[in-house]
């Protein structure tokens, strides 16, 4: 009898507790959840690859708990979107309690299937929330694009056209004896740490109107000026005859690496009318290479803009070097710089692995710097000394600056040495149109720039390919050419 009575009492209290528990939830049909946003919007997402993960929060603004009867992706199993509800992946959740004045996170991803077209695809869906028979939703929208996916491939003779973008995953390589030709308007996206490796030959045929663009595959607004999103264009020591014209190479670790410290071959590159900017290490990283570079802009690196090591042969004409470091996430200047804009050296050090000892050891490699000539160029930045010269005093060390604007402590260079310097404009602000707004950089010269008409006309007439600037403006129609990649065109 006592046991029966005790069971009745327990059941009574359980029923009372459950009823009180049920009654403790807000049951008002007008009670609504609040959301941190009404729309989750993804920028361009590449087909079949996926996206960044975005999130939003749902809030219970009341002093009592509220029961979320269900939350689900409207498109169900056929949706391009995926939901993670407060840490649990699911397309639908039911009977979720949200405590008073509390919130939950919802994470959203999207994968866009290829559609075979070169236009942004708009993919839409929503997450439905039902509370007390009230229906609310948060809209989901993504802009997707089909791509040529190049995933860890070794390329034979290949031509890339601008029918749709190319996405490099796990790097890609141009095979020995083969050529990759990239025609005007092609956009090349590289995933995190991926690089384009050239053992054969690379020919980039961009134009002013349709440049070839190399950039990372994170296209959200916050990533527009974030350095270090992908690897580099690596030109192997055995690769010769490479040409890059009208390319934009941005947001990489290194813009172009050409050569290798352990190899003695001399790779070659003609680089013209190109912008390399916002790199987390070095813009051009060369080891004993041969480069002819003109009408090119190198801007903003964590380390150097141009590092020429272990000798080689280099000519830079009508180039603009400017370095004030890179930006942190969100676009603010981080103050992150650790080297001069330009380094010239006839030696370098690197580590090799000794298998017999199972350890690395330091190697010093040397070679002649046959020439490093800088003509009608600007080398400027926010360092006191933007040029570093490293001579081992054993190998040839030939360098020459002819009609250049240079940022440098006057005591660190012997500008009277005619073997190395001719007509130098020292420590004068070149007065670019915009070198501070990193979303809208413009290294054309302002009307009061001291670099106007400071160049040598003889250098231009001796090299007909210098007769026009990056924009196609003539350098031969006024007193003298302007320094740098751009000729000022007065209105």
Largest sheet: 19 strands, parallel
How many β-strands, per DSSP? 44
Strand content: over 45%
Unreliable segments of 5+ consecutive residues: 1-22, 329-333
Q: What is the terminal-to-terminal distance?
A: 106 Å
Q: Which class best fits the helix and strand makeup?
A: mainly beta
Mean pLDDT: 91
Radius of gyration: 30 Å
Number of domains: 2
Helix content: under 10%
Q: What does the overall shape look like?
A: elongated
**Count of helical stretches:** 2
Question: How would you describe this protein?
Answer:
This protein folds into two domains: 111 residues, Immunoglobulin-like (Sandwich), CATH 2.60.40.10; 320 residues. The protein is 6% helix and 45% strand. The radius of gyration is 30 Å and the shape is elongated. It has two helices and 44 strands. It has 491 residues and is mainly beta. The strands form seven sheets. The chain has a 19-stranded parallel β-sheet that branches. Strands 12-15-18-21-24-27-30-35-40 form a nine-stranded parallel β-sheet, with no helix packed on it.
How would you summarize what this structure contains?
This protein is 6% helix and 45% strand. By secondary structure, it is mainly β. It has 2 domains: 34-144, Immunoglobulin-like (Sandwich), CATH 2.60.40.10; 147-466.
Keywords, please?
491 residues, mainly beta, Immunoglobulin-like, 19-stranded parallel sheet, nine-stranded parallel sheet, disordered N terminus
Topology:
Elements (H helix, E strand, L loop, with lengths): L1 H23 L9 E2 L3 E8 L7 E6 L6 E8 L7 E5 L2 E2 L2 E7 L4 E8 L10 E11 L2 E12 L2 E4 L2 E2 L2 E3 L5 E4 L2 E3 L4 E4 L4 E4 L5 E3 L2 E5 L6 E5 L16 E3 L6 E4 L1 E4 L3 E5 L9 E5 L2 E5 L2 E6 L2 E5 L2 E5 L4 E4 L2 E6 L2 E4 L2 E2 L5 E4 L5 E4 L1 E8 L4 E8 L2 E7 L2 E4 L5 E4 L9 E7 L14 E6 L5 E3 L7 E4 L11 H6 L29
Parallel strand pairs: 2-10, 11-14, 12-15, 13-16, 14-17, 15-18, 16-19, 17-20, 18-21, 19-22, 20-23, 21-24, 22-25, 23-26, 24-27, 25-28, 26-29, 27-30, 28-31, 29-32, 30-35, 31-38, 32-39, 35-40, 38-41, 39-41, 41-42
Antiparallel strand pairs: 1-3, 3-8, 4-7, 4-9, 5-6, 5-8, 9-10, 33-34, 36-37, 43-44
